[in-house]
Design a protein that fits this description.
About 50% of the residues lie in helices and about 15% in strands. The chain has 15 helices and eleven strands. The strands form two sheets. Strands 1-10-9-7-6-5-4-11-3 form a nine-stranded mixed beta sheet, with helices on both faces. Strands 2-8 form a two-stranded parallel sheet. The longest helix has about 45 residues. It is elongated, with a radius of gyration of 28 Å.
Length: about 450
């Protein structure tokens, strides 16, 4: 499992710059200590007292060590500060790409800072380009390298030997790489359509589709206590497709957490809103879909009013819905937790995005690896896990994502610690939590 800041960036550039500045301070302090030792040596060399002069050899050894450490700290500080600038440049360019090139004050500030970073050191721009290029080269790693292709090739060869008459027409296909080629086609389709990244200001178009939403269950529950706890509250294989929790806090205020399930029906023409039609409408056409409209209705039916704080947890299609609701809804969306999300939203600096990604997940691959510089607040991060694959779709299944969340909960990564101490501790202060489950269908 790997926890990063998202995209090509593995660290918070400002935190990284802070480390560089502390290393720089350490280097200066070592240089000062080195100067003190050298002055002490000079004084002792002029003293005739043998008991004092005998320390000169020891001081010479200290001088050498200080000189080496000061030089190492200085080089480390320079390299760290340079990489902080590189990381920041990648982040700023990602923000600029999300906003679009224009003449707004925000875009001008971004460009001024980009120009300053490029001018600060000759290698900054080149290193930023190399960092993004390396990320782009590996963002689909494992997607087309499918173990099933090896198994199919073995079946083809064996079948051709055992029963040539039966397998003669299938052998060319079985001895090729059909699964990897299919995954490659999906990758190329995502790249060509360029729908995986949602630029700032993205809104689903069209009128809200008709959909009927009803509450099927309501009961008190304990506050959510971790990522696994939240993932298990997604109504996977339940009656409803959306669960909404109403948190009543000590001061009487309320806040909400909505849990949204993934695609339930691939065949079009049924009453199921969580189908391939909604997938296509939201991903390819960026049009309002029945499942998106049903989610908004469920949140409102749970008691949320415009301006209320609503956090979102989504799996698969539910993750895509959560991304769109976070970018465009009447609610104050603070924290968004998505698993297997086919899109990457451009969230505001006061919104925290937690992405769960399983290696070689073909649905998550539609997000194109996310934005090179990440998105959302500095507290946002991405959790990536490599797992075993018994079939090409295995990495996208609900169970493996619950396991990814469980492993993340056990992590001592500072970003996970901050999430526990900041977010889940805050939810834990609720005096009561009511969970409501909603079912939706097309009329």
């Amino acid at each position: 499992m790997n926890i990063t800041s998202g995209g090509a960036i593995s660290v918070d550039s400002e935190a990284f710059r802070g480390i560089g500045e502390r290393l720089e301070t350490l280097s200066w302090e070592l240089v000062r200590a080195l100067d003190i030792v050298r002055r002490t040596q000079h004084v002792l060399e002029s003293v005739s007292e043998p008991s004092l002069r005998i320390r000169l050899a020891e001081l010479a050894s200290r001088e050498h060590r200080l000189e080496v450490h000061a030089g190492d700290a200085g080089k480390a500080a320079t390299g760290t500060l340079l990489m902080a600038d590189v990381f920041e440049l990648v982040e700023l360019r990602a923000q600029q790409e999300a906003l679009g090139v224009g003449e707004s004050a925000e875009e001008k500030v971004l460009q001024d800072r980009i120009d300053a970073l490029i001018a600060s050191y000759p290698d900054v721009e080149m290193r930023a380009d190399q960092l993004v290029a390396a990320w782009e080269g590996g963002r689909f790693e494992g997607l087309t390298d499918q173990s099933w292709d090896d198994a199919l090739a073995a079946v083809g060869v064996l079948g051709a030997v055992v029963s040539p008459a039966f397998y003669i027409f299938l052998t060319p296909w079985l001895t090729s790489r059909p699964v990897g080629s299919t995954m490659g086609f999906l990758r190329d389709l995502a790249l060509k359509s360029d729908r995986g990244l949602l630029p700032a200001g993205t809104r689903l178009q069209g009128d809200p589709p008709p959909v009927n939403v009803s509450m099927v269950r309501s009961e008190p529950v304990a506050p959510a206590a971790g990522l696994k706890d939240m993932m298990t509250r997604v109504p996977y294989e339940s009656t409803g497709q959306v669960a909404v929790e109403k948190y009543t806090m000590k001061d009487g205020s309320t806040r909400f957490v909505a849990y949204i399930d993934g695609t339930r029906e691939m065949k079009p023409g049924t009453k199921e809103p969580w189908d391939s039609v909604s997938d296509w409408e939201m991903y390819m056409e960026r049009r309002d879909a029945a499942s998106h409209e049903a989610t908004l209705q469920a949140i409102a039916a749970a008691g949320a009013r415009p301006g209320d704080k609503v956090d979102l947890v989504g799996y698969s299609q539910g993750a895509m819905i959560a991304s769109h609701v976070a970018m465009d809804s009447p609610y104050k969306v603070g924290t968004v937790i998505v698993a297997g999300d086919p899109v990457d939203p451009a969230l505001a600096p006061d919104q925290t995005l937690i992405r769960l990604e399983n290696g070689a997940d073909p649905v998550n691959g539609l997000a194109l690896g996310g934005a090179a510089g990440g998105t959302g607040s500095p507290d946002s991060f991405t959790i990536e896990r490599d797992g075993t694959r018994e079939s090409p779709i295995d990495p996208h299944l609900y169970g493996p994502y619950v396991e990814t969340a469980s492993q993340a909960d056990a992590s001592q990564d500072p970003r996970m610690r901050a999430l526990r101490e900041r977010y889940f501790a805050e939810l834990g202060e609720a005096v009561s939590v009511e969970q409501m489950e909603f079912s939706a269908e097309r009329p």
